[in-house]
Amino acid sequence: MSCGEDEPTVEVETPESNEQLSMENLIDRKVKAELSIPATENHTQSIYKAQLNDDEFEDAIIVVNRKEHTLQTAIDKNNVAYQEEVGYFGNYNFLFYYDGMTHTVTRKITVPSNGLIPLKVDFANILTEGYKDFSLDIRIREARYRNFYTVRNGVPALIFQCEIHNVDDANNFNVNHVKYDVGSHSLSKDIVIYEANVKSNIPKDLSSDFEIETEPKGDEKLRFFYYPAQKKYFIKKDQIQ
Known about the structure:
Layout (H helix, E strand, L loop, with lengths): L22 H13 L8 E7 L8 E7 L1 H10 L3 H6 L3 E2 L2 E7 L4 E2 L3 E2 L2 E2 L5 E5 L8 E8 L2 E10 L2 E13 L5 E9 L8 E9 L15 E14 L4 E4 L6
């Protein structure tokens, strides 16, 4: 039997549980784990807070953009020219939802779109005045589309989508203006689409990241109403083209 110095005690750092983390740190952990983002990658996590259900707790929408990964993937696959042609379309933008009452973050919702342009978030009282719903503006080549969501059973649910602007076959730049109106078939608001007058400058590169200010032109073009039994928006038969 031999005697010697005692072995030094090694302290192992125990990761904090999700319950101990702040909202921001919990979101950061979830996003990086879910998307397997390496520590060396620059990316954006944008957090937008609002009450998104009827539990009176503040929730949040998180949109993640991986622009650096988008560009590096094109280089690694030697298809930069092709990606420029298709507007860097791919699975590089993501949506997450943070529930304030349960302090949890949903799994990723992939939003295929231009990976160089982050998703744009806006809140509005659409289905009810009791809490907010939200929309995402997504870019695909020269076009901009708007997705409308409500939070249902703890997960964002897509309830409507429309085109905001695009270029037609004759190379005309067509723009729509979207408004909410009093519900015609339920207490939820109608979504009304007009042709638009553009009040701001239109860039030469329509696939770039830009915003435009619009106002409605003329009478409404299309009106969509919410049908609670189907939990989505419909259009009247006499407006179907």
